[in-house]
């Protein structure tokens, strides 16, 4: 009876749902209370104070630049690698395996490795630049280049993620459709923009949203390499929330930033839910 009425599957997921709610409900309630409950009543005083904190808008700007830039570059590179691999025969698996190696590395390890390579005094990058008679840079230790440097490391770390999803999307396309297009005289460009991309819309959206959320909450690479510095040159909202909570001992300010991060993540997650619903 339960199976016939479609109630058995929801019952199977009920224990997991209850466990997740138990683990998430209490931290969420505490966070909302610290952000909006002041002197025994609801208030936006903490939020207003957070928005007026020195350097907040620069941190917000850094977050937008880092998130959008890292996401778009990762998507572009991942798509380019996946599309180029479609023209490779015989060694496709080898190149695919090589391209996803950075994804297997821990972000902290990647950040430490790049930090040593980009060290202004002892790094191999500046050593090579000196051999080429080109003045090296402080990279992550100088204000103009700090944000771009940590963004570059984040792109290196997560481009394989975009590549893996998009490559799987290309591999799942029906071969008969592409073959029919070629027989009809379609060029590679026409096949890509008129057939492949429209059929991969949901795949690209899934990759984009997951990559966006990962870049938005990036912490490891930034904190290990720069800790948000120099000054606030590479500080994002996640780094700011960490500092407010554990360095400045202002949990209410960290909670208000956390609410902002949560709302943004939920808004970004809606398209992927709609895409997955349409594909089922």
TrEMBL record:
One of its GO terms (cellular component) is plasma membrane. Its main location: membrane. It is found in: Cell membrane. Residues 60-272 form the ABC transmembrane type-1 domain. SUPFAM superfamilies: MetI-like. Keywords: Membrane, Transmembrane, Transmembrane helix, Transport. The keyword Nuclease does not apply. PROSITE patterns: ABC_TM1. The chain crosses the membrane at residues 12-37, 57-82, 94-118, 155-173, 193-213, 254-273. It is a multi-pass membrane protein. GO terms for biological process: transmembrane transport. This is Trehalose transport system permease protein SugA. The gene is sugA_3.
